[in-house]
Design brief:
three-stranded antiparallel β-sheet; 17% strand; Rossmann fold; alpha/beta; 2 domains
Amino acid sequence: MFHSVAPCASWYNVDMATFHVTTAQRRYPAVVQRGCLERLSDHLPERTGKIFVLTTPDVWQRHAARLARGLAGRSHEILFYPGGEERKRLATIEALAEEMVQRGGDRSSVLLAFGGGIVNDVGGFLAAIFMRGIPVIQLPTTLLAQVDSGLGGKTGVNLESGKNLVGAFHQPLAVLIDPEVLGTLPEREYRAGLFEVVKCAVIRSPELFDLLETRRGDVLAREPETVERMIAECVRVKAEVVSADERESDLRRILNFGHTFGHALEAETGYARLLHGEAVGLGMRAATFLARRLEMLPEPEAERILKLIEAYGPLPRVGDVSPQALALRLRSDKKTVRGEVHLVLPEAIGRVRIVSGVDERLVREAIEAALL
Ligand code: GLY
């Protein structure tokens, strides 16, 4: 067992809607503000070649007018991604790159990734390798992408063997997070995103945890100020973590709380039954049961975490999934290094620890307890 990570004491200041991510590649702003998409052109370089917008038909149908206002008359080309995890493959990247060349793309082009996590991943990776790398601006439109996958520079696609196994770190020029676009997000997707918010609270923000406990009604009703504040705190935490450890050699691993179990569940259920955030919700339950069993986490805090996850449910029922099969899958997670499974376990609300070498029987028991 190793690596304790201290919680951060600061809390979101309502006047501060811009956070900065600082990495070896670049320093860039992550703006959280209702209406910020309308100011997109402020973040574009003055002189660029073709501007490409990668988006899905449904996002385009709902928000094209908003983006057009943000582009303030700058001409652009739309690239449609049909959506879906199954199309997040290298073949799609190749087809999109061909399309960009045919439509005049070159090294001076800029890509805007306008959509949920899959579009952010695909667009980021396309930008990372098109003409050996062009700038990308991330415009996440789901709660999950706004609080997690839209910032931090991880990009990539899936292989037959697993999710996100090919990719690159490609930091964007900017991330614009406009909570107004969440108004049209389907309820199940919104709730799935809330599990990533719970993750953020447990790993590093007791204040956010309190907000989620005490303002559940406002959070679920998408009360604008509460939502903006909640997203901003997640972005503050993520910006801080990525700035400290872009390549996930150390601190960034805490962002995987709930994900090791969650990825195993997604794979075991064929990526068809669970949304990513829901798998993370179930994964956080397993991690909490395990931390309790290892006597790392006091009972009252474990109870609060489990209760909070339940409060933002319902989580899909997966009681038919074999804990044995899940425990086996943990071994093939890409965070497993030389056969050693690394788990992120809570030791307090706002503080987690990376743990390895846990007895497989205890892991199986925790999974059994977590599956609904
Ligand atoms: N979603 C985890 C990370 O960005 O590191």
